[in-house]
Amino acid sequence: xxxxxxxxxxxxxxxxxxxxxxxxxxxxxxxxxxxxxxxxxxxxxxxxxxxxxxxxxxxxxxxxxx
Length: 66
Known about the structure:
Oligomer: single chain
Number of domains: 1
Structural class: alpha+beta
Largest sheet: 3 strands, antiparallel
Radius of gyration: 13 Å
Number of helices: 3
């Protein structure tokens, strides 16, 4: 279960506040949570991929991955 993150884990990982996380989650491209036994969790790989895409977009780099 190491690849699933709680809301507080994401806030620590990204160094953001709860309100910023909420605002980001309103974006249609932000990874959707997984409902696990009534608790919301996010997949770490999806978050890292989303962050990488945003970083590439900000720097103007284009990924060559398929």
